[in-house]
Amino acid sequence: MAEPGPQIESSDDRDEAARAPRTGWLKLLPWLITLACFAYLYGKLSGAAGREGLSLLAYLTRVFTGVDWFRWLLLMVPYSFFFFLVDTGVVWRVVNDFNSRVRYRDMLPIRGSSYILSILNEQVGKGAMGLYLNRRYGVPGWEVGSSMLFIMFCEFYYLLGWASIGYWIGHDSLPAVFVWIPRVGLGAILFFALWLLLFRGKTQLASAFRDRPVFKAFREANLRHYLVVVLMRSPALLAAVVIYTLALRLFGVEVGFVQMLGFLPVIFFGAATPGPMRTVAITLWVALFPGNHEGEMAAFGLVQHNFFIFFNAAIGLIFLRRANRELFD
Questions:
Q1: Could you tell me which of 323, 324, 311 has the C-alpha nearest to residue 109?
Q2: Domain extent at residue 277
Q3: How many domains does the chain have?
Q4: Residue 22 domain flag
Q5: What is the pLDDT of residues 271-292, one digit of tens each?
Q6: Rounded distance between C-alpha atoms, residue 167 and residue 200, angstroms
Q7: Does the residue 105 lie in any domain?
Q8: Which one in 48, 95, 196, 212 has a CA-CA gap of 20 to 30 Å to 203?
Q9: How many angstroms separate the CA atoms of 142 and 222, rounded?
Q10: Which residues touch 187 (CB under 8 Å, ≥6 apart)?
Q11: Which range, of 155-169, 190-204, 211-225, 264-278, averages the lowest pLDDT?
Q12: Largest Cα–Cα separation, the chain
């Protein structure tokens, strides 16, 4: 019997083999970031507990027991509902501009139920909205994906814009590293101008990039669409500045509203970093805030971000039965 000849590896096999290590690193990266954040927090909290002559457990227990949790809930529960209404309004506006006519009240169960899946991953939640709009209104999935990408793009500029305003108003009270905010803002403005030119211009050079289905919303958008999303999203951030400032005072840390306006957009950038428990955002509270308040800031970041995630998911449960009925019937 003749021996089998050498196996010829196809280009698809080689591409798959090359993609496997990259995919593995992408899956591992959020956990590596999380471990680095926990290591940093452990070092800072252990040092703070040592200065107080306490064990780490006793130090954190003292921090948590010193908070008036009832007053904290009176702040956070209404803010979470307010954020939900604003967030739904942004999605409703973008979907109506680029996808399909949907009433605001019909968008509430779509956005609310997606919060449940967002506990695991924000992108999974956005994917659920795409499935819902496809089943309920016949919107192609790639069109919804384009709209979600448009919202994420606008959110970057909305946070950067308010971070720049916060730095401009209160830069004297912010850490020196915040001097990079106006520099990043200038680069972002230049990029945005080129971005608009790419999608509003008629050049054939970039047509292969511009005409991809995922960029449908950007092809149809003009400057007004970008500004509308930024303006509609802004009340949520301004409310957060007030709520987070008052809530932080319950943890024994005094901070002004202007100073919080400088910090909060940067920390919200950290909250968008992939990883469990919003560890990057929690770490930023400890790393960026001046003063010896490591325990208070770590506890504050932990409860603020995780309460927000899980309470939003609880809001989603209110709409889950209706969402399932409309999605699967």
A1: 323
A2: 69-328
A3: 1
A4: no
A5: 777 666 678 888 889 888 867 7
A6: 32
A7: yes
A8: 95
A9: 20
A10: none
A11: 264-278
A12: 85
Work out the angle at residue 242's Cα, subtended by the Cα atoms of residues 319 and 176, and round it to the nearest 5 degrees.
120
Burial class, 2, CB count within 10 angstroms (exposed 0-12 / middle 13-18 / buried 19+):
exposed
Nearest to 152 by CA among 126, 131, 134: 126
Mean pLDDT across 16-30: 62
In a domain, 200, yes or no: yes
pLDDT band of residue 1 (cuts 50, 70, 90) is very low
- Angle between helix axes 223-250 and 294-328 (nearest 10 degrees) is 130
Helix boundaries (H) for 138-222: 141-170, 180-200, 207-210, 216-220
State whether residue 69 is helix, strand or coil.
Answer: helix
Show Cβ contacts of residue 148 under 8 Å, excluding neighbours closer than 6 positions.
Answer: 126, 129, 130
The rounded distance, in Å, linking the Cα atoms of 272 and 290 is 23
Residues of the chain with pLDDT > 90, as a percent, come to 32
Separation of alpha carbons 210 and 218, rounded Å: 8
Of 316, 317, 321, the closest CA to residue 84 belongs to: 316
Averaged pLDDT score across all residues of the chain: 83
Query: Position 276: which residue type?
Result: P
With respect to residue 53, please indicate whether it lies within any of the assigned structural domains: no
What Rg, from alpha-carbon coordinates, does the chain have? 23
Q: How many CB atoms lie within 10 A of CB 92?
A: 20
The Cα–Cα gap between 107 and 144 comes to: 13
What does the alpha-carbon distance between residue 246 and residue 250 come to, in Å, rounded to a whole number?
7
Mean pLDDT of 31-39: 84
Residue 150 CB partners (closer than 8 Å, separation 6+): 94, 98, 217, 218, 221, 225, 229
